[in-house]
Design brief:
By secondary structure, the chain is of the alpha/beta class. The protein has seven helices and 18 strands. The chain has helices spanning 16-19, 24-27, 102-114, 125-132, 168-180, 237-240, 265-283, and strands spanning 11-13, 34-38, 49-53, 77-79, 90-97, 147-155, 163-164, 189-195, 200-201, 208-214, 225-230, 290-292, 322-324, 330-331, 333-334, 340-341, 346-348, 353-355. It has a six-stranded mixed sheet, sandwiched between helices. A four-stranded antiparallel sheet has the order 2-3-13-14, with no helix packed on it. It has a two-stranded antiparallel sheet with strand order 4-12. The longest helix has 19 residues, at 265-283. The radius of gyration is 19 Å and the shape is globular.
C-alpha cells in the first residue's frame, strides 16, 4: 500500500479540466434552460418547486446510459473482503482545526445528527444514508444506520500550522486524540478532521476537496479510519462548493450559481463533501472493501461514481431534479430541526445506479 502522498483516487477528485467542462449543447445555446414543476403537497411546503437547472457539469459523464444517474452495467463495484463500519453506533470524533464560528459548527453538527434522525420529513438525510447501509462485509454485517458524534475537539491555535499535508493531518489527529482523551475506538470509531477557511491543504482546490484514509500506528499509535474536508468559502468555492458557486468567467451570460439552503456557500458546499467522504469511509474504511477498479491504490468508490449528481435526470450538464423553496434556496434533503441540505447521491449496489431519497424514478 502506498503512502497517502501517492494515493489519489480515494480522495475527492475534482480536476479543473473536467469540472469546468461545458457540453456542446451549452456552446450552442447562450441561455441555459431550467425545467420547473410545482410540487403538489400541502401546507407551507406547497411553495416548494422541483427544478432541474442546467449547469456546467462538475465532471464528465461516467456513461452514456439513457437513465443518466450514473447507471451502467459496465461499472463493476466489487467487494475486496475488507471490513465495513458495521458496529452500532458509528462514533464520529470531530476535530475542528482552525477558527470556526458557532453557526458554522452548528450547521455541520446538524447534518451529522440528521443521519440518524427519523423525524425529518422525506426526502431526508436519514433516507439517503440507507443506501450506504446496503453495503456489507463477508459476515453479512451491514454498515450501521446509527451514526453519533461521540466527541469533539477544537484546535483554534493551529497547533500544526496553517498549511497541512496528507501526512501532517495524522499529526493533527494524534494531537487532538491525546488532548481530548478520545478513546481508541477501533470497532466503532472514525475521525472527521474539518479545517477552517484560512487553512490550506496539500492539493486542496487544485485536485481535492476532501479525502479519507486511515491512521498509521507509527504516527497516531493505532489504525483508525479518518476523513478530512476543507472549508472552501474563501479559497475555491467555485471548485469545492459547486453548485453554489461557479467560475468567474461564467459571470456574464453563463448560468447563475444556486442559492445554498442555509445561506453559507462554503459550509453548505462542505456538507456535500462530508457526505461523500463519510459514505466512502463506512463502506471502505481501510481501502480494502467496496470499490471499483483493480488497483487498490486507485479505487473508485461509492461517492466518486455519483459525483455531481443530486437528483433524477442528472447528467449532461444537469445536476438532477432538486427542490427550491420560496426564498429561492436549493436543496434535496431535509434534516434535523428543519434544516435543509443539498447532498450528492451515492452508488446503490442493488440498483447498480446512483440513487437518493429525492428520486422520482
Amino acid at each position: 500500500m502506498s503512502s497517502p502522498a501517492t494515493i489519489s483516487s480515494f480522495f475527492y477528485f475534482i480536476t479543473l479540466s473536467s469540472f469546468f467542462y461545458i457540453s456542446s449543447s451549452l456552446e450552442n445555446n447562450n441561455k441555459h434552460t431550467t425545467t420547473v414543476n410545482s410540487l403538489n403537497i400541502p401546507s407551507a411546503a406547497a411553495e416548494i418547486e422541483l427544478v432541474n437547472p442546467k449547469l456546467p457539469p462538475r465532471s464528465l459523464s461516467l456513461t452514456s446510459s439513457k437513465k443518466f444517474e450514473g447507471s451502467s452495467n459496465l461499472i463493476h463495484l466489487r467487494y475486496h473482503m475488507g471490513p465495513v463500519l458495521s458496529s452500532s453506533p458509528i462514533n464520529i470524533y470531530v476535530i475542528w482545526y482552525g477558527r470556526w464560528s458557532r453557526p458554522h459548527k452548528s450547521l455541520i453538527r446538524d447534518f451529522l445528527n440528521s443521519i440518524f434522525d427519523a423525524k425529518a420529513p422525506s426526502p431526508s438525510v436519514a433516507e439517503w444514508w440507507r443506501t450506504a447501509s446496503l453495503y456489507a462485509d463477508q459476515t453479512g454485517a451491514n454498515v450501521s444506520r446509527s451514526v453519533l458524534i461521540a466527541g469533539e475537539y477544537s484546535d483554534s491555535n493551529y497547533s500544526h500550522g496553517q498549511h497541512l499535508t496528507r501526512l501532517t493531518i495524522q499529526d493533527v489527529i494524534a494531537s487532538a486524540a491525546r488532548s481530548a482523551s478520545f478513546p481508541v475506538d477501533h470497532k466503532n470509531g472514525m475521525y472527521l478532521v474539518l479545517t477552517s477557511h484560512d487553512v490550506t491543504m496539500q492539493d486542496f482546490c487544485r485536485a481535492v476537496c476532501g479525502f479519507h484514509y486511515f491512521t498509521f500506528p507509527s504516527m497516531v499509535g493505532y489504525t483508525m479510519p479518518y476523513a478530512w474536508v476543507g472549508q472552501s468559502g474563501k479559497q475555491c468555492p467555485e471548485v469545492c462548493a459547486y453548485p453554489f458557486a461557479l467560475p468567474g468567467y461564467m459571470g456574464h451570460g453563463g448560468p447563475g450559481e444556486l442559492r445554498p439552503p442555509n445561506g453559507e456557500t462554503g459550509v453548505d458546499g462542505m456538507v456535500s463533501v462530508i457526505g461523500h467522504e463519510l459514505a466512502e469511509v463506512v463502506s471502505n474504511p481501510l481501502i480494502n472493501a467496496w470499490y471499483a477498479g483493480e488497483d487498490p491504490t486507485a479505487p473508485t468508490e461509492i461517492g466518486d461514481l455519483c459525483e455531481g449528481l443530486y437528483g433524477s435526470g442528472g447528467g449532461g450538464g444537469y445536476i438532477g431534479q432538486v427542490m427550491r423553496d420560496r426564498e429561492g434556496k436549493t436543496f434535496n434533503m431535509n434534516g434535523k430541526g428543519g434544516r435543509k441540505f443539498l447532498v450528492q447521491w451515492i452508488w446503490n449496489p442493488n440498483l447498480k445506479a446512483c440513487s437518493g431519497p429525492n428520486s422520482v424514478d
